[in-house]
Structures are given as C-alpha cells and as structure tokens.
Amino acid sequence: MTAAPFTGIGTADDPWVLKTPSLGSEILMHRDEDHDPPVLVCTVGTTVLHYDLRIIEDLHAMLKEKGDWVQLGNADEQKPAAEGTVEAWARSSDNPIGGWYGLKKVSGGG
User: Fold this and answer.
1) How many domains is the chain built from?
2) Burial, 36: exposed, middle or buried (Cβ in 10 Å; 0-12, 13-18, 19+)?
3) pLDDT tens, the chain, 110 aa long
4) pTM for this structure?
5) Separation of alpha carbons 37 and 54, rounded Å
6) Rounded to an integer, what distance in angstroms lies between the CA atom of residue 37 and that of residue 4?
7) Containing domain of residue 75, as a range?
8) 103, part of any domain
9) Phi, psi of 102 (to 5 degrees)
10) Chain centroid to CA 51: how far?
C-alpha cells in the first residue's frame, strides 16, 4: 500500500498538505466556500493565492475525459504554459470558465 499523495481534509483548520515536485517545499490548500466567489486557497511560504473553486470539479472532469496521465506544468505566470499540461488547460479559453482559474494574489513575501 502506498502513502496518500497529500494529508489533510481541505479545510482552513486541516488543509491539504502537498509537496512540490522537488519535495523541497510544502503547499497548503483548502476550500473557502464562504469567500465571494468561493475559492481554493493555496499557500506557499508567505504567498497566498486564490483560485476559482470550480477548478476542482472542472479539473476532475477533464482528467477523467483524458483517461490518462496529464503533466502538471510549472511555467511562471508571465510565460506560456507547455501545451497539453494541466497548467495550459487552466489558462485556456477552451476550459469551462473560459480562461484563468487563478484570481488576484492576496499577499506575498519579499
């Protein structure tokens, strides 16, 4: 049996804890359904990012449709995302919301 890829239940008090691909950093994520609009909150160090909460269900549907592995992607927001990646899909005008799931950055370090 393999370990779960993340821990937590996705609430502010018990966020999902994921590792970056290099395993060098943690990413904390939780749902905030009381926010207007509802968001997925992603915290990396001191940076807090919000994503439209619909991304969870929309991404699940896209992955089921693809029926295979889809690379995540990791381009800076100012650079193009590699074709065929989750990142490219999340920025595409062809996705269910017609563009970026990312919302305004809330805070940042440095």
Assistant:
1) 1
2) exposed
3) 445 566 789 999 999 998 876 778 888 999 999 999 899 999 988 989 999 999 999 999 999 998 878 888 877 778 888 999 999 999 999 999 999 898 865 555 44
4) 0.78
5) 10
6) 29
7) 16-91
8) no
9) -70, 140
10) 7
